[in-house]
Amino acid sequence: VTAQPTAEVIAVGDELLRGDTVDTNGAWIGRTLAGIGIEVRQRTVVGDQVDQIRDAMRAAVPRVGLLVVCGGLGPTADDLTRDALADLLGEPLLLDEALLQRLAEYFADRQRSMPAGAVVQAMRPSSAWPIHNQVGTAPGLRATCDGCTVLLLPGPPRELQPMLTGLLPQLPSAAPSSARRLTVALLPESLVAELVEPLLGEATAAYYATPGRVVIRLTGATEAVAAATARAAAVLGDVLLDRADAAESVLAAAERRGWSVAVAESLTGGLVTASLTAVAGASAVVRGGIVSYATEVKDSLLDVPAELLDARGPVDPEVALAMARGARRALDADVAVATTGVAGPDPVGPHPPGLAFVAVSSPEDERVVRVDARGDRELVRTLTVAHALDLLRRSLNRLPDYSATAEPG
Amino acid sequence: VTAQPTAEVIAVGDELLRGDTVDTNGAWIGRTLAGIGIEVRQRTVVGDQVDQIRDAMRAAVPRVGLLVVCGGLGPTADDLTRDALADLLGEPLLLDEALLQRLAEYFADRQRSMPAGAVVQAMRPSSAWPIHNQVGTAPGLRATCDGCTVLLLPGPPRELQPMLTGLLPQLPSAAPSSARRLTVALLPESLVAELVEPLLGEATAAYYATPGRVVIRLTGATEAVAAATARAAAVLGDVLLDRADAAESVLAAAERRGWSVAVAESLTGGLVTASLTAVAGASAVVRGGIVSYATEVKDSLLDVPAELLDARGPVDPEVALAMARGARRALDADVAVATTGVAGPDPVGPHPPGLAFVAVSSPEDERVVRVDARGDRELVRTLTVAHALDLLRRSLNRLPDYSATAEPG
Questions:
Q1: Which of A280, A331, A377 has its CB closest to that of B280?
Q2: Does ipTM surpass 0.85 in this model?
């Protein structure tokens, strides 16, 4: 058994530390290297200072077999990664005539004169090799330091990504260990972990929770992951989605049944419809949605009886059901889901923020569930969307309603 | 003159290294600390391993006065930041009875039994103080190590942000400089910077761009910031919003005019209505929205003439305008905005992904603009939402259409 190859990533840029820019390269590099079995052990973000960059490189080199440094290769005075590499290697920066030639052609092609500052992009430490940039002016650099492969890549994702992708076949990759992702709807993260942990065997699990959803990532040897996946699926039962997210599961289920889908929304204000239509190909299934934000619109467009609205107010299980029925009719769909409730921060009549009802109406099924969400306006809306998509998925798949208190399995 | 206080940030989570999650906390913390004059010198991302977390903390402590560690405080076996702090301090983890009590109340409030694993969230090293979590179950922790203030915060942004914001007054900040945020709609970041940089005087600007929006953050002495703000406002003119975001500007403008608002959406699938209703108090202005995802729904609910749809197809400026008119009528609103276009990844008839039309209809105004967005499905939808909100804002405020080529000012 050979050890899994490891890497570190250093991202360079004051703008990353100050938070003017979110570092998306780190995540992309992590995914890309994981794809060929290289594990990123640490990522470091440093500012535009030669000594900071060099010290971070020097600390990383003995720890890993591959070091990817991104950013700081441009033509301006704060682009200092090249200098830091020269410092690390103890070599001066030389002018590479072939690189200079290529730079000159780049500007000539674009009918622009080459700015004087651009020349620095043709400099490299003597033992470093240039990596061609298909998109921009700054070449990458590849060097070896104490047995560690060091790659310097430009910061802009559209320059960095093709460059690293092109280098992948030359990197020290491992037999990829197997990884499997399971998405669980509505169940709290602590409960998911409690259920899954005893089933892992030789596999390892990590959990990632967003409101209304937990993603379990199982890794390990291929058979260990397959066995753990089977055991987890058996215990989790119907809280486990058959797709990576709830909207995709709904669309897949609707497609299997040959049913079209409609939505009626009040407190979620369009988010349920937006979640469904975020999936490419949604138009095969989704007819559309009606956001009946004003109470009168629930009557005028969704035919919710005015007497019901007068008697109960808009936040009511019967109103939710009437909205779902109205959306099926108005949008000529087979099945519809509806939401009504209090997003907050203020209560609506006697109802506190976070109280909502979601309903489904289909040719074979009518259901309403009550949601008690705690949190701010955004969280209440997000959790209500999660409940609406889950109720719809359960109706389409003829599953019982979700219950947080019932033990799955 | 005292030196500027410095900080480091450590983000904990295998999912960050593997790239399953993009680290947005780092940027937010950088901006927030910069706002009170604390400079973040380095950010490190480490995996879910006690020794990795502890070593990163141990390396950072002697370098800075403040260390913020985020993530790894949850209830599952891979949440190990608490243990790493205990290790760093050389103290055992103790059960804090008051924290346990609070956890028990959290679950009791929600009528859920407390999972056994949750108890670990009531543990702390003896010299560390808990920081109350207003939103979730995991408290933060605050400790001092060799003169460095160490804050442990939960990873989810909605838990982390209020916690750190609440702590700001207690942090070792620099002479409080003044800060001002300006939000610009649609103008590209490079152009915003080109316009604003010459106007800064003694103030400093940082730029933060998201699709369709640039936030300029001006910092410096109070008078310098006020002067730079006035100059920037004069040059930016009508691309500068009078609120922090486009939806708030639209709602404020509609309220000033006493007009109600409706939405008709195709490719944006509910996101325009969702953006407007994300603002607390939206119900005073927003009547609702119709997501006419299927072409027939544009006819049946929005009265877009079937002949027009047959002749032109759904992606057409006249169709966008007819949708806006239809939404005004169907939802009984004063003004309506509509979107139609191609979200992608596939073209619609002759139209490429990214082509969209947005239209507004009001008692005094009808407008249509063409949007050419480049990017994936999510980006196309997000940019179309930005254009729709901007057109609506401009119509409500009697401003000319946005033009990327016209020099503002």
A1: A377
A2: no
